[in-house]
């Protein structure tokens, strides 16, 4: 599964956090919220769990894609010697498998994106609480999330990037369990009857 938490969806945690200390704050900070969430122990565990959960499905899609490539190669190499009936059968098998791969891949992608969004939503509020507390204590008037490429930030000095300290503070406030161990290799399965297009890569949280 591709790591794209990545690439991952819009966050519900918001783009900015405004905080007021005793004196009117004037400092501005930037943060890559998605990177911060995925960099926490909770985020790393959620990512590993997601990959483990979808690895079997990804393996099935990869198997179908390999079967499709094999049929296409068989048709290409044997087209000159095969009977018309044999060529028609392989062509039908290729078409059926291709449709299956497309359908299963779209379902797979939608399910992965839904689970990735759920992770962001579940961890987003906890992350927001940490950001607001940090901004308040450190006199920041504005904290801008630069995870979204559409954020109108043309340039920012990295000295105002608070992503790393926020990850550390989050882990202190919410100690997370160690990432789940990768799943054991699955036993080989017989070729799937129907394939589809190149399967989408697995989830993984996108970053900045």
How would you describe the overall organization of this protein?
The chain is mainly alpha-helical. Helices cover 53% and strands 6% of the residues. The protein has helices at 33-39, 41-78, 84-137, 163-173, and strands at 16-17, 27-31, 140-145. Strands 1-3-2 form a 3-stranded mixed sheet. α2 packs antiparallel against α3 (84-137) and α3 packs across α4 (163-173). The two termini are 19 Å apart.
Average pLDDT rating: 78
Count helical runs. 4
The fraction of residues in strands falls at 5-15%
**Structural Rg:** 23 Å
- Which sequence of strands runs across the widest sheet? 1-3-2
Quaternary structure of the protein = single chain
Helix content: 40-55%
Task: Detail the poorly predicted runs.
Answer: 2-22, 183-208
**Beta-strand segment tally:** 3
Summarize the structure.
This protein has 208 residues and is mainly α. It has four helices and three strands.
List the helices and strands and how they pair.
Layout: E1 16-17, E2 27-31, H1 33-39, H2 41-78, H3 84-137, E3 140-145, H4 163-173
Parallel strand pairs: 2-3
Antiparallel strand pairs: 1-3
Helix pairs in contact: 1-2, 1-3, 1-4, 2-3, 3-4
């Amino acid at each position: 599964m591709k790591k794209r938490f990545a690439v991952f969806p819009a966050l519900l945690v918001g783009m900015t956090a405004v905080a007021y200390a005793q004196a009117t704050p004037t400092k501005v900070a930037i943060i890559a919220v998605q990177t911060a969430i995925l960099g926490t122990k909770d985020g790393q565990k959620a990512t590993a769990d997601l990959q483990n959960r979808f690895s079997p499905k990804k393996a099935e899609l990869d198997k179908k894609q390999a079967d499709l490539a094999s049929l296409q190669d068989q048709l290409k190499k044997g087209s000159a010697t095969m009977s018309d009936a044999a060529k028609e059968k392989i062509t039908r098998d290729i078409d059926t498998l291709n449709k299956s791969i497309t359908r299963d891949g779209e379902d797979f992608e939608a399910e992965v994106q839904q689970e990735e969004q759920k992770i962001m939503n579940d961890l987003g509020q906890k992350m927001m609480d940490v950001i607001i507390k940090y901004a308040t204590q450190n006199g920041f008037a504005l904290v801008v999330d630069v995870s979204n490429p559409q954020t109108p930030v043309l340039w920012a000095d990295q000295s105002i990037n608070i992503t790393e300290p926020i990850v550390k503070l989050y882990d202190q406030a919410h100690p997370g369990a160690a990432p789940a161990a990768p799943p054991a290799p699955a036993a080989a399965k017989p070729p799937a009857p129907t394939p589809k297009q190149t399967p989408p890569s697995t989830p993984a949280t996108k970053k900045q």
